[in-house]
Amino acid sequence: MPFVNKSGGEDEEDTSDVAAGAPTPFDLDFDPNDPERTKVHYNLTGWGFDQRAELSESLAERGVPHVWDGEELVVPEEIEEFVDALFDELEAEIGPFPVPLLDGDPSTEFGLDEWPVKDLETLKESLIEAEIPHLWQGRTLLVAQDAEDVVDDLLDAIEAGDVALLDQDAEAPDGALQDLFAAADRLARDPTHTAGRNTMLQLVPQLSPTVPPFGMSASAWSVIVGHAQAVVERFEEGADPELLTAQADELRTVCRPYV
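Now predict its structure.
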């Protein structure tokens, strides 16, 4: 969802770029210059051309009354809920969308003039996937100040070749690392623990050693996945409890620094 705010009142800027489109199903007389009308602003800074085109097409097809004000889409407050749902629908189809860093927000600057294009593309995709507020000024990256440490680690990982572009259809499941650690901890304490065993059997087949969770290097993740696969193999081999306990303890140990 883009950053959203509302405006209205006598000091509102005049906006004249009114969108043309199909007749609206909304029974609204939307005058964007009416100082008495409350309007909702959606900041689309960082959206790509294809994403904007898809949004514009959806707005026209559904007859949504709106105006464009630079990087912002402006709609009457009365249809905010409808437009929110439209953005949710688009995000599921063509997202995720970048989270903009707004003017005045505390930020940290990273100069990336020497970075190759491939690494910059990896970084751009990673920032969007992680929903980190950011802004590009040429090859200078501004990020939210409270995300400085995370981005610093991400830059190091990309430079080391440990982070690759994530395919939306091949991501590590949400919470995979935490779930692996919890299951390993249970099995290390009790190798017959049913919930721990079920978690491993359901989760491990979904994991790829080359698709780590955000912020983790591929090399570290591949080690964890290898230990997790070894635990599942123990299940299939009918290993004795002592061997399974030892294998689960190894998995717990390699997960521990990242949870």
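The mean pLDDT is 82.
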